[in-house]
Amino acid sequence: MVKLVTVATCNLDQWAMDFQGNMARIVESIRIAKRKGATYRIGPELEVSGYGCEDHFLELDTFSHSFEVLAEILRTDVTDDILVDLGMPVLHKNIRYNARVLICNRQILLIRPKMFLANDGQYRESRWFFAWSKVRETEEFILPTVVRKVTGQAHCPIGDAIIQMKDTIVATETCEELFVPKSPHIEYMMNGAEILGNGSGSHHSIKKLNTRVRLIQNASAKGGGAYVYSNSQGCDGGRLFMDGSALISCNGEIMAQSSQFSVKDVEVVTAVIDLNEIRAYRLVQHSRSAQSEHQVWIPRIKCDFALTSNKFCRRMRPSRPIEVYFHAREAEISYGTACYLWDYLRRSKTGGYFLPLSGGLDSSSVATIVSVMCQLVFKEGVENRNPIVLNDLREVCDKGSDWIPEDPKEIAGELFHTCYMGTENSSASTRELAKLLAGEIGAYHMDINIDSIVSVIVKMYSIFTGKTLRFEVHGGKQVEDLALQNVQARLRMILSYLFGQTLSWVRGKSRSKPLLVLASANQGECLRGYFTKYDCSSGDFNPIGAISKGDLRRFLKWSAENVGLKTLYRVLEAKPTAELRPQEAKQEDENDMGLTYDELDLLGHLRKAEGLGPVSMFKRLAYMFPDKPIEALAEKVKFFHTKYAINRHKMTTLTPTYHMSNENPEDSRYDLRPFLMNASWDFQFKQIDMLVLEYKHEDCEHADEDAHMQSLEGAETQHS
């Protein structure tokens, strides 16, 4: 005998403070779930308000608007005959909580506050919320008038409890609670909960999905049960991209998975779970039964509704396990940033993107991401006939309701603008590569020389100071050389914003909407400070600021093979260069930086992801590279930290970037460091010098021991 229940979970592209839009997407997801036969639906964390409201969570309006949305949802029939688990901020006894609200048949069953808040990395939840600390306890929550008028309820329980349905027990937890060592779902399962939901706001970073899948499978495997995971998908106003991948697991197997990267606003997946399979799975686990028998009782909220159906239907059969789909590392970079750019573009109500395209690896990577964005939008809006995506595209491109683009290149031609800003120091090769790549993408491309503007600035400087600036190869000093390089770089930023503000008007667009300026500085260069403050590293958004040079190389190779941009092969062959010095200087990035990109990637990883300071970093490298001269390793560490400290002030003005890696050096949110640093590191570097002497002394002792052993072995051989 089977006892089947259809459970539903979803990706929602919510937006901070967009209460009207968020409500529409929530309602749509519930209606889709019901059409698919579901009697249980869970949505993402804080889906009513949007996860990324940040200090708006310190405003009373955010809480009152959330309950107004809840009242509107309860006013309709959308919650009839379905248990709905949604996320929203709740104010109880003047304390702010991040909560799940469980509703069924237009009644609020339980408000379950989050018990473990996320406070590491990009997360600051304890700034806005308090964790519910009363384990296995509930209190009376007085419902606001706007809800009371709809439901007739004066109050409902709030706290740590589970829902007793007519045929099963349901429990819920929120995002971080899956990741902590002692997750609430353990106790819930031991108390008989068979369906566990998790509404999450989990951001994308490379290969993070693998961790989530392992945790979800483990949650349902150890004690048996169905674990239903929902996540936001998209940019809801900040640096994070929530990467969807809603999952349903049962008894350790994945039964359903939604997309990780998509430009759709709403995506719902379902699975049919046989409750008797869960019970049979638990029945044979003697250890689980022994532990459950001693488990402390958790309050149960009764609901007079059954999730299962008594009707026999051969078309409704239990879901079978599926193989989880994981994107390649390069595909994650491609699709994550592309989906983010689409959300940013359509929600900012601007007319497209402007990119200073140098023909180098970094700006070519950004251009490639925009190309992928156009392909994703074309596939979903035109090929899949998604009216929301197509209407958003028409709005961005300032087109009428009858416009349907023929291919992604036509989309790029409307919304993507590139410009090669050459000087006498630029090469014909990079100029050609920029033109070829823009042509392959379909971008509106400009090719200009800015020497005359540079010349005016330099001449004005001479008039004001009586000094003439010269490059080092022409007899000048380093200070002059850097100043001349920075003039070129900063003029490109000024021109970028000038073109970004006016190109829609130049092209005759009816509404002349401004363009968003894209920056292109990679993770390693940001950390080293190898960029000019307020140059083309500045813009409205930087898609690659948390991506290493090595990952960008692999991404471009993947894109050349999978996106159809063959010019990228030539981009990859070229040596990275800023082209800010005369060509006879033969300028190359790695020579200028004093470090290779591979070295920067490694040192950046050790600094942030491993949490190593100068001394610990030196020790780690000494063990990692025993064959390299110890003095050389010490000098690398000293040089890296000196340059990093001198240039840290640049990070305070760094353009917001897509947070993708644990090595992200962005100062404003993730990598919080002082911008005025002691670049001499006297105390730390002295310890490194002492360690070098110790290592060298140790090497000498080992060399003497080896020589002694060899002499003994030689003597023994001679005696024989």
Descriptive overview:
By secondary structure, the protein is of the alpha/beta class. Helix content is 44%, strand content 16%. The chain has 24 helices and 20 strands. The strands form three sheets. Strands 1, 2, 3, 4, 5, 8, 9, 10, 11, 12, 13, 14, 15 and 16 form a 14-stranded mixed beta sheet that branches. A four-stranded parallel beta sheet has the order 19-18-17-20, with helices on both faces. A two-stranded antiparallel ribbon has the order 6-7. Helix 7 links the parallel strand 10 and strand 11 (226-234). The radius of gyration is 30 Å and the shape is globular.
What portion of residues is helical?
Answer: 40-55%
Oligomeric state as shown: single chain
Approximate shape: globular
Q: Count of helices? A: 24
The gyration radius over C-alpha positions equals 30 Å
Which key features would you list for this structure?
720 residues, alpha/beta, 14-stranded mixed sheet, four-stranded parallel sheet, 20 strands, 44% helix, globular
Summarize the structure.
This protein has 720 residues and is α/β, with parallel strands linked by helices. It contains 24 helices and 20 strands. Helix 1 links the parallel strand 1 and strand 2.
